[in-house]
Write a structure and sequence with these properties.
The chain is of the alpha+beta class and 142 residues long. The protein is built from five helices and six strands; from the N terminus they run αβααββββαβα.
Length: 142
């Protein structure tokens, strides 16, 4: 199902469970949250297996990864049309895909001009969404 160009995907019951749990999440989620959800569903998968599976999926280009405000990696399945860049709210975790054509063009040009091959890149945009910025009383936070 998930072919890889880097890393090795060997389907196991535990990996299939991690992938299934990830696809049911709304937005980005952490390995810890996935592990907790699996345990709540009575599925025994070690936390190390969750981390390894997410790493393999990332290496295979099957998940997008961002970091939250504390630096923790958060994952979500990559859309069929390819990798995206996201703007992530540091307070509530809301994520929005952003138009990144210019970034992709720049990365392609740097790749061509340097002679590097198989270049990967990460762009992390974080901020505070309107709802969190407005604060609990409906006034703009400062």
């Amino acid at each position: 199902m998930y072919g890889t160009t880097r890393g090795e995907w060997r389907s196991t019951r535990q990996r299939a469970a991690v992938l299934a749990a990830l696809t049911t999440c709304d937005g980005f989620t952490s390995a810890q949250t996935l592990h907790t959800a699996l345990a709540a569903d009575g599925i025994e998968v070690g936390l190390t297996t969750v981390y390894r599976t997410l790493h393999l999926l990332g290496t295979a280009g099957q998940v997008d990864m961002v970091r939250d405000g504390d630096g923790e990696r958060l994952y979500r399945p990559r859309p069929a049309d390819g990798h995206r860049h996201y703007l992530l709210c540091r307070q509530c975790g809301l994520s929005l895909a952003v138009d990144s054509e210019e970034v992709e063009r720049w990365a392609a040009e740097v790749t061509r001009s340097t002679g590097f091959h198989a270049v990967d890149h990460t762009l992390e945009l974080t901020g505070v969404c309107d709802d969190c910025h407005d604060g609990p009383q409906g006034h703009r936070a400062t």
